UniProtKB/TrEMBL annotation:
Transmembrane segments: 29-52, 64-84, 90-115, 154-180, 200-224
Record-linked SUPFAM superfamilies: MetI-like
Gene that this polypeptide is encoded by: cysW_2
Bilayer topology annotation: Multi-pass membrane protein
Keywords annotated in UniProt: Membrane, Transmembrane, Transmembrane helix, Transport
KW Cytoplasm (keyword) present: no
Name by which UniProt lists this protein: Sulfate transport system permease protein CysW
Taxonomy of the source species: Bacteria, Pseudomonadati, Pseudomonadota, Alphaproteobacteria, Rhodobacterales
Chief location: membrane
Cross-referenced InterPro entries: ABC_perm_TupB-like, MetI-like, MetI-like_sf
Location(s) in or outside the cell: Cell membrane
Domain ABC transmembrane type-1: 25-221
Species of origin: Cognatishimia activa
Cellular component terms (Gene Ontology): plasma membrane
Length: 233
């Protein structure tokens, strides 16, 4: 009965747009979308560069980026914490336990993921465009621009995958953000806190929002990547 009461209250919080729930959700979206824009600006051109240019450390770079996809987020949080702490090299900036620190951690986490997905997609596109672009005597910058434009659908899918990874992150965010009420509390850290306190209604409400975001992102990926054809997934 307690579980059902919590679920009922959670839906009521969603319907009435509870102030705490809305505030936490908007902060989560701000942090994650900002991190996604920065990460995409770094990762997408890098993925195109790895597809177009051949250099000595290219294979090593790709291998390292693929390995970083599996880097534990809490380790990223620890590294960012050390760098931004008072005794760290960037401690003077006072960024620790702020949304900016959370954004930095999320950028580090999702850049390797976006680069890897973008590189895989653009590598296939480059094999189709290689002869044409070279015969036109295009510069490396022009080749990268052409790949980014023609591969925009696949690149948007890569960015959405990064969003899905970032919005569900808790370990690194907890370490560098501190889960401070009305300041750095986001969906995942709030769910962990409210569950620990036994406040299942707000935790479930936040959980429903997080699930809805995850479903929306996955549906967007399916639609954009055109995996739904002929009525089949």
């Amino acid at each position: 009965m307690e579980i059902w009461a919590g679920i009922t209250e959670a839906f009521w919080l969603l319907i009435t747009l509870d102030a705490d729930l809305v505030e936490i959700t908007l902060r989560s979206l701000y942090v994650t979308l900002t991190a996604l824009l920065i990460a995409s600006a770094i990762a997408l051109p890098l993925g195109a560069l790895l597809a177009v240019r051949r250099f000595r450390a290219r294979r090593l770079t790709i291998a390292v980026l693929n390995a970083l996809m599996g880097l534990p987020p809490v380790v990223v949080g620890l590294i960012v914490y050390v760098m931004l702490s008072r005794s760290g090299p960037f401690g003077v900036l006072g960024l620790l336990f702020t949304p900016t620190a959370m954004i930095i951690a999320q950028v580090i986490i999702i850049v390797p993921l976006i680069v890897s997905i973008a590189h895989q997609a653009l590598r296939e596109l480059w094999s189709d465009y290689h002869d044409l672009l070279i015969s036109m005597n295009t510069t490396q910058t022009q080749r990268i621009q052409a790949l980014l434009w023609d591969g925009r659908r696949a690149l948007l899918t890569a960015s959405l995958a990064g969003f899905g990874r970032a919005i569900g992150e808790v370990g690194a965010i907890m370490v560098v953000g501190g889960n401070i009420d009305h300041h750095t509390r986001v969906l995942t850290t709030a769910i962990a806190l409210e569950t620990g306190k036994g406040e299942f209604a707000l935790a479930l409400g936040l959980g429903f929002v997080l699930i809805a975001m995850a479903i929306a992102v996955n549906l967007a990926i399916h639609v954009i990547s055109r995996t739904e054809r002929g009525g089949r997934w």
